């Protein structure tokens, strides 16, 4: 059975590894995009503007309350339509191709962002107000406070939560196999169907995901230690 | 309350953008045509171990594109979304063992057909269902005679209480739903998975394109799947496998029709069919 | 946007809600058993039991649920030995395969919740109970459990919502729960948007109700935190 996973033309080993590379690419891009959405979402939720708060609340409730599969399907079948509708506002009426990678990144990024919003909001609220007052007293401007005080402290508080979001994001990429993007799950399903040996392929997929989650957990732990180096521990 | 309002907002946003989708170009010069296939329906179309799309329709597509003098790009798309994604403009044509049926003609148009295969029932070696005789060998569902109706009713009573697998959104699934009332229909995303569940004994029989069953019989765990009983074609089972196109793309339909006739006249369709199926299933449009 | 089609799909989708709820409820309940077992093994101090439980949690939290479902449904049934075994009558059914996968998955997450909750019980309370002469069982029932349950409730609420969403993956192994029915309607109408939006609203409503329920349970269980009137 294991020869099915050989490298080269006869086996699926190289296809599975390419799938793993694609999974990492999609997950990383989606996570970063999610951080952007998350920062915007958290800022909106912490703002005093009722409309912004409402939009951000709607975003996180809907995306976190609907199955990921549905979010991905809706974007896959509607992504081009939405982009084109937006473009037609600016007078551009040609067909705009939105490829499977972009759709996957945006879909998973939206989901990731909804969770990041909550993490970042919580972390920002955990920054002691005295720190900001102290910075003001030192004569720092708003941007300087954000860059020197609020940003770094929020990041420190957010890191453990963001580690969890990353794990979620990584695993959610398995669902974009429905868009035929050649990531781990898609390659495994194609291999399983073509060779009628589902166990080998799905087990191999599970091992690849385990490797990815283990390595990334270790990286996040290191980042966390690094961020906490200035904190005294009992 | 928050979530309800939110849902309405998102729904409205999507509704707006969905209605704004362009419905295909009217009089555009076709230089590049993107064609979708499933890649999991051998020998019609499949994926080899280097991840490349292969099969009868992949080879036929290349020939048709040369004849149409257009550049073609082949994309893989799961079966259950293949028509919605065509309508959304993700590609311009479908060549995926799709039969032209009246049901599908409500939403898309077809060029062709280029091939035709009957649908057949199959069960595992040793199944008592295999004793069901192939009498007659073939029934055309278009204008059924009284005798043919009896054949279908007899089969329905023989399969009563059994579970039959078919691929979702196919002519075969519609057939079982319409003519086999006492049968539990279980629908699958891919033919390969029907084969796996038939081997595992989760379903008693499958109903699929005869050649797709042939594809399962070629290799591995599914090789003991055996065809039984009468085979069916026509009517609800469609008028042959054809190229699926958006209704608006009339000129593309003309291009494809011409190329399909030419390929058939030149014997290419027949030759490719023999190469992939072992027999000639080419038909004239 | 075809509003009529959306409206027409509501009865069929509503009819699928009981199956979704069944999958979620059974998986959560059985998963709780799984989780209690794993948490107990990990806190027991028994090296082999703790190792096995950690491995279980590691594998099921580290891989996507979709892989787990496919491994259980298509992967296991591939083996003659499994098909000849005692478990086949259950594994034969997509329904039980889905429940098994969901249960194992949520069990791994729940065991972390339980472990965290038990570890959060202040040591002083346990010591005080011991000083009062409580037996291990009584101590667990009267002190550890109530405190831990209160601690775990918010996280448990999240887990319920995650399970409601996860149950949609049962549609990939032929089950006709909400997403399965939605996909079947789409296969006949090709109206991806309309049907998935209706399905999405149903999921939102279920999750809204679940969140409410948990908040109510939380309120009931924490009378001491309520402001006195």
From TrEMBL, chain A:
<feature type="transmembrane region" description="Helical">
    <location>
        <begin position="20"/>
        <end position="42"/>
    </location>
</feature>
<keyword id="KW-1003">Cell membrane</keyword>
<feature type="transmembrane region" description="Helical">
    <location>
        <begin position="72"/>
        <end position="91"/>
    </location>
</feature>
<comment type="similarity">
    <text>Belongs to the binding-protein-dependent transport system permease family. HisMQ subfamily.</text>
</comment>
<dbReference type="InterPro" id="IPR051613">
    <property type="entry name" value="ABC_transp_permease_HisMQ"/>
</dbReference>
<dbReference type="InterPro" id="IPR035906">
    <property type="entry name" value="MetI-like_sf"/>
</dbReference>
<keyword id="KW-0812">Transmembrane</keyword>
<dbReference type="InterPro" id="IPR000515">
    <property type="entry name" value="MetI-like"/>
</dbReference>
<protein>
    <submittedName>
        <fullName>ABC transporter permease subunit</fullName>
    </submittedName>
</protein>
<keyword id="KW-1133">Transmembrane helix</keyword>
<feature type="domain" description="ABC transmembrane type-1">
    <location>
        <begin position="20"/>
        <end position="220"/>
    </location>
</feature>
<feature type="transmembrane region" description="Helical">
    <location>
        <begin position="199"/>
        <end position="220"/>
    </location>
</feature>
<keyword id="KW-0472">Membrane</keyword>
<keyword id="KW-0813">Transport</keyword>
<dbReference type="Pfam" id="PF00528">
    <property type="entry name" value="BPD_transp_1"/>
</dbReference>
<dbReference type="InterPro" id="IPR010065">
    <property type="entry name" value="AA_ABC_transptr_permease_3TM"/>
</dbReference>
<feature type="transmembrane region" description="Helical">
    <location>
        <begin position="98"/>
        <end position="115"/>
    </location>
</feature>
<keyword id="KW-0997">Cell inner membrane</keyword>
UniProtKB/TrEMBL annotation, chain C:
<keyword id="KW-0472">Membrane</keyword>
<keyword id="KW-1133">Transmembrane helix</keyword>
<dbReference type="InterPro" id="IPR010065">
    <property type="entry name" value="AA_ABC_transptr_permease_3TM"/>
</dbReference>
<dbReference type="Pfam" id="PF00528">
    <property type="entry name" value="BPD_transp_1"/>
</dbReference>
<keyword id="KW-0813">Transport</keyword>
<comment type="similarity">
    <text>Belongs to the binding-protein-dependent transport system permease family. HisMQ subfamily.</text>
</comment>
<feature type="transmembrane region" description="Helical">
    <location>
        <begin position="53"/>
        <end position="76"/>
    </location>
</feature>
<protein>
    <submittedName>
        <fullName>ABC transporter permease subunit</fullName>
    </submittedName>
</protein>
<feature type="domain" description="ABC transmembrane type-1">
    <location>
        <begin position="13"/>
        <end position="214"/>
    </location>
</feature>
<keyword id="KW-1003">Cell membrane</keyword>
<dbReference type="InterPro" id="IPR043429">
    <property type="entry name" value="ArtM/GltK/GlnP/TcyL/YhdX-like"/>
</dbReference>
<feature type="transmembrane region" description="Helical">
    <location>
        <begin position="190"/>
        <end position="214"/>
    </location>
</feature>
<keyword id="KW-0997">Cell inner membrane</keyword>
<keyword id="KW-0812">Transmembrane</keyword>
<dbReference type="InterPro" id="IPR035906">
    <property type="entry name" value="MetI-like_sf"/>
</dbReference>
<dbReference type="InterPro" id="IPR000515">
    <property type="entry name" value="MetI-like"/>
</dbReference>
<feature type="transmembrane region" description="Helical">
    <location>
        <begin position="12"/>
        <end position="41"/>
    </location>
</feature>
């Amino acid at each position: 059975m294991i020869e099915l996973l050989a490298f080269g033309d006869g086996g699926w080993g190289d296809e599975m590894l390419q799938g793993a590379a694609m999974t990492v690419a999609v997950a990383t891009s989606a996570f970063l995009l999610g951080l952007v959405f998350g920062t915007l979402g958290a800022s909106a939720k912490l703002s005093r503007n009722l409309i912004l708060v409402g939009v951000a609340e709607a975003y996180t409730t809907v995306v976190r309350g609907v199955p990921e599969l549905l979010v991905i399907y809706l974007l896959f079948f509607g992504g081009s339509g939405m982009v084109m509708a937006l473009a037609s506002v600016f007078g551009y009426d040609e067909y705009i191709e939105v490829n499977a990678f972009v759709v996957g990144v945006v879909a998973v990024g939206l989901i990731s962002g909804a969770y990041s919003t909550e993490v970042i909001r919580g972390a920002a609220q955990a920054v002691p107000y005295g720190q900001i007052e102290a910075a003001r007293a030192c004569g720092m401007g708003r941007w300087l406070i954000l860059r020197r005080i609020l940003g770094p402290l929020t990041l420190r508080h957010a890191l453990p939560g963001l580690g969890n979001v990353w794990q979620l994001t990584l695993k959610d990429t398995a669902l974009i196999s429905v868009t035929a993007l050649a990531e781990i799950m898609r390659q495994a399903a194609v291999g399983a169907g073509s060779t009628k040996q589902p166990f080998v392929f799905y087990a191999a997929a599970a091992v690849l995901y385990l490797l990815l989650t283990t390595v990334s957990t270790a990286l996040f732990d290191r980042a966390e230690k690094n961020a906490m180096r200035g904190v005294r521990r009992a | 309350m928050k979530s309800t309002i939110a849902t309405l907002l998102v729904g409205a946003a999507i509704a707006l953008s969905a209605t704004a989708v362009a419905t295909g170009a009217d009089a555009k010069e076709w230089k590049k045509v993107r064609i979708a296939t499933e890649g999991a329906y051998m020998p019609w179309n499949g994926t080899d171990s280097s991840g490349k799309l292969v099969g009868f329709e992949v080879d036929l597509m290349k020939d048709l594109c040369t004849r149409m003098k257009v550049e073609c790009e082949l994309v893989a798309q799961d079966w259950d979304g293949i028509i919605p994604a065509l309508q959304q403009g993700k590609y311009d044509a479908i060549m995926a063992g799709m039969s032209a049926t009246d049901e599908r003609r409500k939403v898309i148009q077809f060029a062709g057909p280029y091939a035709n295969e009957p649908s057949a029932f199959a069960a595992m070696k040793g199944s008592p269902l295999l004793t069901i005789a192939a009498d007659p060998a073939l029934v055309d569902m278009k204008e059924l005679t009284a005798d043919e109706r009896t054949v279908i009713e007899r089969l329905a009573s023989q399969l009563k209480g059994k579970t039959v697998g078919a691929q979702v959104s196919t002519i075969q699934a519609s057939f079982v739903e319409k003519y086999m009332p006492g049968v539990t229909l279980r629908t699958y995303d891919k033919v390969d998975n029907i084969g796996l569940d038939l081997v595992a004994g989760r379903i008693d029989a499958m109903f699929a394109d005869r050649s797709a069953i042939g594809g399962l019989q070629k290799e591995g765990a599914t090789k003991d799947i055996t065809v039984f009983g009468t085979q069916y074609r026509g009517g609800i089972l469609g008028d042959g496998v054809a190229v699926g196109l958006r209704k608006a793309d009339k000129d593309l339909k003309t291009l494809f029709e011409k190329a399909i006739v030419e390929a058939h006249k030149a014997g290419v369709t027949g030759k490719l069919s023999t190469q992939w199926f072992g027999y000639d299933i080419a038909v004239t449009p | 946007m075809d509003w009529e089609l959306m409206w027409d799909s509501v009865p069929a989708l509503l009819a699928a809600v009981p199956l979704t709820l069944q999958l979620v409820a059974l998986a959560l309940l059985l998963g709780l058993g799984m989780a209690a077992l794993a948490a107990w093994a990990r806190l027991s101090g028994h090296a082999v039991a703790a190792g096995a439980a950690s491995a279980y949690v590691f594998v099921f939290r580290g891989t996507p649920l979709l892989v787990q479902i496919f491994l259980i449904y298509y992967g296991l049934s591939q083996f003659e030995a499994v098909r000849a075994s005692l478990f086949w009558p259950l594994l034969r059914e997509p329904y039980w395969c889905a429940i098994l996968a969901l249960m194992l998955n949520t069990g791994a997450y729940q065991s972390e919740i339980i472990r965290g909750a038990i570890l959060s019980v202040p040591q002083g309370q346990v010591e005080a109970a011991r000083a009062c002469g409580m037996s291990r069982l009584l101590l667990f029932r009267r002190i550890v459990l109530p405190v831990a349950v209160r601690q775990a409730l918010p996280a448990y609420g999240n887990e319920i919502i995650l399970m409601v969403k996860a149950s949609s993956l049962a549609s990939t192994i032929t089950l006709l729960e909400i997403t399965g029915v939605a996909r079947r309607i789409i296969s006949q109408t090709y109206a991806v948007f309309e049907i998935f939006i209706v399905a999405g609203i149903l999921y939102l409503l279920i999750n809204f109700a679940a969140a409410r329920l948990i908040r109510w349970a939380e309120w009931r269980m924490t009378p001491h935190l309520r402001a006195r009137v």
